[in-house]
Specification:
- The strands form 3 sheets. The protein has a 9-stranded mixed β-sheet. Strands 1-2 form a two-stranded parallel sheet.
- The chain is 36% helix and 16% strand.
- By secondary structure, the protein is an alpha/beta fold.
- Helix 2 crosses helix 3.
- It binds S-adenosyl-L-homocysteine and iron/sulfur cluster (SF4).
- Residues 151, 153-155, 158, 160-161, 208-209, 242, 262 line the site of iron/sulfur cluster.
């Protein structure tokens, strides 16, 4: 074997070892057991194969799994008694063993710009936030899902980063956020079979780092992509990561969803400070992982997210360095004006600085939309989500609004 080939094999083995380590660490934060005190379990969150096995265990034929799946994920049924194609006896057996629940919406707030935010409370009392961002023009929008309660990373500009990681969210809780959001807009196919439009995109950009909860996120996304249920195409799902390099390869190969990368700085010294994960996976490694991300093409670009912090990362020289770094990658750059939160240490770049930065990026041939802040009045904008110790304040605000 040539020395170069040996080196490449060693590097692959190292990455695999790193993935195993990340997955094992993540499993320590998994949610508690899903059974209710009466022994019933959540049906939402089971994979197709698990559901089929559960049905086989109570003597039901495999095609029943398909029917139940359709009721739960296509029709949005929450009651077995409503499943008219399923015999009464089977409905009863299912109801003894399972619930088709949703996380409890402890607080719901709607912004002046129609953005809606839910504080969901899970069975063990832990909470996370979900945001629906309606398109300003078309009759559609994106649901921003949380993947963890808190975050282990402490990006300096992010409100969630000030909340320690309590635990990962499980598949039932991740899919449940989306289903509960659809409930709230009456967005399940009508008996005539119209397809929901409003809540037709998922962005994994809420609380937490999805690639530090990969197993649960992957299972949840496999459920929402299943063609006989919610049936969202992988093109309608975007996973945002602060740069967990070894897991980017895995997510690309297994899920093939759109990738958004929180870059925010073009020099390692600054990125080390803003996104401390950079000390482990520096810019060069992150960009290399983007270059090899499967499925990226001009039709499916990688999004580089870049938060605009006044006087910190918003110079023209940095814009030039950015386009040098990402040259040749099918990419777009999303410029996010910094959203302040109580106690944050940064200011938003001026409109002129953002425009100058954008024009350098656009001149290099990349699209560079500026993300309009949405839902700032209810702390629903990017990076403003936080639930620990915020419960009382959020409830007070909701009551005030009611
Ligand atoms: N943990 C993932 C996804 C959640 S954060 C990640 O970091 O990518 C979603 C996006 O919001 C990220 O690009 C993040 O950097 C950005 N963000 C965080 N705090 C922000 C703030 N205060 N203002 C604007 N964007 C912010
Ligand atoms: Fe975690 Fe993302 Fe916030 Fe960083 S920006 S602290 S990775 S949620």
């Amino acid at each position: 074997m040539s020395a170069a080939l040996q080196r490449r094999e060693d590097a692959t083995a190292l990455t695999e070892a790193e993935r195993v380590r990340i997955l094992a660490k993540s499993a320590r934060f998994d949610p508690p057991g899903v059974a209710l005190p009466d022994g019933r379990r959540d049906l939402v969150g089971l994979s197709r194969a698990e559901l089929a096995a559960e049905l086989a265990a109570i003597g039901e034929a495999p095609f029943r799994a398909r029917q139940v799946w359709h009721w739960v994920y296509h029709q949005g049924a929450t009651d077995f008694a409503a499943m008219s194609t399923i015999a009464r006896g089977t409905q009863g057996k299912l109801a003894e063993r399972f619930v088709i629940g949703r996380p409890e919406a402890a607080v719901v707030q709607t912004s002046a710009d129609a953005t809606r935010k839910w504080l969901f409370r899970f069975r063990d009392g832990q909470e996370a936030e979900t945001v629906y961002i309606p398109d300003r023009v078309e009759d559609r929008g994106a649901v921003c899902l949380s993947s963890q309660v808190g975050c282990t990373l402490s990006c300096r500009f992010c409100h969630t980063g000030t909340q320690v990681l309590t635990r990962n969210l499980g598949p039932a809780e991740i899919v449940g956020q989306f289903m509960a959001a659809r409930d709230s807009y009456g967005e399940w196919p009508s008996p005539k079979g119209e397809t929901p439009r409003l809540l037709s995109t998922i962005v994994l950009m809420g609380m937490g780092e999805p690639l530090y909860n990969y197993a649960n996120v992957a299972k949840a996304m496999t459920i929402v992509m299943d063609n006989e249920g919610i049936a969202l195409s992988r093109r309608r799902i975007t996973l945002s990561t602060s740069g967990v390099v070894p897991m980017m390869d895995r997510a690309g190969a297994e899920l093939g969803v759109n990738l958004a990368v929180s870059l925010h700085a073009v020099r390692d010294d600054l990125r080390d400070e803003l996104v401390p994960l950079n000390r482990k996976y520096p810019i060069a490694e992150l960009i290399a992982a983007c270059r090899r991300y499967p499925g990226a093409s001009n039709a499916r670009r990688i999004t580089f997210e870049y938060v605009m912090l006044r006087g910190v990362n918003d110079s023209v020289a940095e814009a030039r360095e950015l386009v040098r770094l990402i040259a040749g990658i099918p990419a777009k750059v999303n410029l996010i004006p910094f959203n302040p939160w109580p106690g944050s240490a940064y200011e938003t770049s001026s409109g002129a600085a953002i425009a100058r930065f954008a024009s350098v990026v656009m001149d290099a041939g990349f699209s560079a939309p500026v993300r309009a802040p949405r839902g700032r009045d209810i702390l629903a904008a990017c990076g403003q989500l936080r639930t620990e110790g915020a419960r009382g304040a959020a409830q007070g605000a909701a009551q005030g609004a009611a």
